[in-house]
């Protein structure tokens, strides 16, 4: 069960266990979905229309972009920025799930609301993701810039990227795109937890069947939640990516046209004027594939590792109880 469940027979999830399970789930999931993330970012940053019928830019289709990146940059290009991305996933997963467990428990104990309802999961999930975003935004900016650069590389490694960004734009460079990120992440994460709760209830086996649905139920519920929440909040993710590469235009020239945005509103206006309504959804296809896999695997691995941690803890307690005084 994700979140505080007063009716559960198992022990309450401690913040430490939730953070460990969340960070491990983030690590495993990130390694699996990194290629889709790179494709999504390349599409989002392209000014030209993304269309296989009328190809204008460097990338105009999912398979074409994959072949292009592989032929020009090699297989490792699909894991560009993987180190900051892994740091981001580990940090975000730890903060988000620990905050979510804490918030749902607080709501149940301090308010008349039931912590197991989808509405409570929406609010707590959104707030938990916002807290994780503020903590992890610098890592997200680094990840985006590494994934966006082609050959020759602007940043040689993580240390070089941090030092260069600090010299050129100061510490605030790491928080470019924070406002649209927070505007997007609250409903996005809230909807993830909301629909995950709804789908798990819908897919729950009959009460007297003696079955729980297992981890496959978590995977399917998470995938469905990821697709719906990503579709509804996608434009804000695109705004964030465009703003995160502000001041990074030189590395983007050989990919096609580049734009300099003064802020969120200017970014929205320029995209609407130059690229039309479809511009707000560039890269949606790989994003939906990524969202289905990412959200599904995140909830799947979170519950898997949380159950493993709880089983290990209970086994240790049992061993301590049955030990003789001399063994202790």
Quickly list its features:
single chain; mainly alpha; 68% helix; globular
Number of separate helices: 9
Radius of gyration: 22 Å
What gross morphology would you assign?
globular
- Unreliable runs: none
The helix-and-strand class reads mainly alpha
Estimated helix fraction: 55-70%
Mean pLDDT: 83
| Helix and strand run | HHHHHHHHH
Care to count the β-strands?
A: 0
Largest sheet: none
Q: Give the termini separation.
A: 34 Å
User: What portion of the residues fall into strands of 2 or more residues?
Assistant: under 5%
Report on this structure.
This protein has 328 residues and is mainly alpha-helical. Helix content is 68%, strand content 0%. The chain has helices at residues 15-45, 62-73, 82-110, 118-148, 158-169, 178-202, 214-244, 264-275, 284-322. It is globular and about 65 Å long. The model has no long low-confidence stretch (mean pLDDT 83).
Question: What is the topology?
Answer:
Elements lengths: L14 H31 L16 H12 L8 H29 L7 H31 L9 H12 L8 H25 L11 H31 L19 H12 L8 H39 L6
Helix pairs in contact: 1-3, 1-9, 3-4, 4-6, 6-7, 7-9
Question: Can you summarize this structure?
Answer:
With 328 residues, the chain is mostly helical. 68% of the residues lie in helices and 0% in strands.
């Amino acid at each position: 069960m994700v979140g505080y469940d007063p009716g559960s027979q198992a022990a309450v999830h401690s913040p430490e266990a939730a953070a460990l399970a969340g960070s491990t789930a983030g690590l495993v999931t990130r390694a699996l979905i990194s290629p889709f993330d790179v494709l999504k970012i390349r599409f989002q940053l392209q000014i030209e229309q993304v269309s296989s019928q009328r190809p204008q830019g460097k990338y105009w289709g999912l398979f074409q972009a994959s072949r292009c990146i592989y032929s020009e940059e090699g297989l490792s290009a699909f894991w560009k920025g993987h180190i900051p991305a892994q740091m981001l996933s580990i940090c975000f997963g730890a903060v988000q799930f620990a905050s979510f467990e804490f918030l749902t428990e607080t709501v149940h104990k301090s308010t008349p609301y039931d912590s197991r309802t989808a509405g409570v999961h929406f609010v707590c999930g959104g707030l938990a993701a916002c807290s994780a975003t503020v903590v992890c935004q610098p890592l997200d900016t680094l990840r985006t810039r590494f994934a966006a650069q082609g050959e020759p590389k602007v940043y040689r490694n993580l240390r070089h990227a941090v030092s260069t960004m600090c010299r050129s734009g100061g510490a605030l460079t790491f928080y470019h795109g924070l406002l649209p990120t927070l505007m997007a992440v609250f409903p996005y994460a809230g909807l993830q937890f909301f629909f995950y709760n709804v789908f798990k209830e819908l897919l729950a086996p009959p009460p007297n069947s003696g079955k729980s649905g297992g981890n496959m139920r978590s995977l399917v519920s998470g995938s469905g939640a990821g697709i719906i929440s990503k579709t509804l909040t996608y434009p804000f993710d695109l705004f964030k990516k465009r703003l995160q590469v502000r001041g990074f235009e030189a590395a983007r020239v050989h990919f096609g046209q580049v734009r300099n945005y003064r802020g969120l509103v200017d970014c929205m206006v320029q995209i609407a004027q130059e690229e039309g309504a479809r511009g707000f959804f560039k890269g949606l296809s790989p994003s939906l594939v990524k969202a289905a896999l990412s959200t599904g695997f995140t909830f799947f691995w979170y519950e898997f590792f949380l159950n493993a941690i709880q089983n290990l803890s209970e086994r240790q307690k049992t061993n301590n109880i049955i030990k003789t005084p001399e063994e202790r």
